[in-house]
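note to self: dont lose this again. the chain is below, predicted strucutre after it. 353 aa total, dont forget to put it in the shared folder this time
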Amino acid sequence: MPVQSFVYNSAPQRVVFGAGSLQHLAREIDALGARRALVLSTPEQRPQAERIADMLGAHAAGVFDRAVMHVPIETAREAREVAQRLGADCAVAIGGGSTTGLGKAIALDSGLPILAIPTTYAGSEMTPIYGITEAGMKKTGKDFKVLPRTVIYDPELSLTLPVDMSVTSGINAIAHAAEGLYATDANPIMDLMAQEGIAALGRALPAIRAFAEDAAARSDALYGAWLCGTVLGNVGMALHHKLCHTLGGSFNLPHAETHTIVLPHALAYNAAAAPEAMARIAKALGGSNAAQAVFDLARDNGAPVALRDIGMKESDLDVACAHALQNQYPNPRPLERDAIRALLQNAWEGARP
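---
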C-alpha cells in the first residue's frame, strides 16, 4: 500500500442523535446562548414548526413557513428581514434541504446561529455549503458561518416522511458520498464515512419501502444521511452535483428526484476514471457495478429514473449541457461536451447505464 498524503479538517458542530431527541431542543438552544428562535419550515411543514414554537414557548420569536426549493433570493431576503424585525438571535430549521438552505441564507448575512432538525435525508445540515437562486441561476458557495451549530437527529420525526420522498431523499444523500469518494481532496476518513453511509442507506431504503414505520430502518437512514452529509461538507463535489444544480436552478426541477435520476449516469461517465471509488460504491450496495446498483436501488424502490418524468423538456437538454460546461471544475474524467450531452439524453430517457 502506498504512503498516503492528505489533509483532513474537522468542523466544530454538535450532533444529538436518537429517538425522542427532540425533547432536548430547549437545552440545545440554551447551549447556543440564544434566547429567541425564529422557526423555519416549508408551508407543508408548518404544523411541525408550530409544535417546535410551542415547545420553546416564550423563547420562540415566531414561525416563517415560506421555505422553498433552491432558496430564491427574494425569499431569503424576506426571511432575514423577519428575523431582524422579531429580534431573533437564532433560527431553528425543521425539515429538509429547502428549510436548512433558508436558514443558511439567513446566517450568511446576519451570522445568526442555526439549529437544524432534519426530517429528510438531504444531509445539507452537515455542510457549510449554501445555494441561492437569482434570475434563474443557482449560485453556490462555502462559508462556515452557515454551518448549523447544532443538529438534532430524531428518527421519530421521519416516520411520516412519505416513502417515495424517503427513497429520493436517501439517494440524494448517497450522491454526496459517492462523489466524495473521487473528490480531488478526498481522504481516508471521509472514504470510511462515505462507504458506511452508502451502505446504511442501501439497507434502509428497501426496508422503508416495505414498511414505512420501521423505526430501525428510519434510524439507519438518518445515520447514513448524517455520514453522507458530513462527506459533502468536507470534500469537493464534481460533475453530478454541477449537473443537478444546473437542472434544478435553471429548470426548477425537484431537488432530490433530480439527484436520484442523474447519479447513475454521472457515475457511469466517471467509472473508468475512478475505479476504486466505483468498487467502494458497488460493495456498499451489494452490487458489481456502481452505476447499475444505484439505478436499480432507485427503480426497484419506486423512484423516478427519467428526467422526462419530472418535467424536463428534451428541447432544454442542449441548454443544460451548455450551462454545465460554462465553468470548469474538478472531475475524474475531463468534461467532454458530446459525452455530457449523451449523459443528459440517457438521464432524460431513463436508460439503465
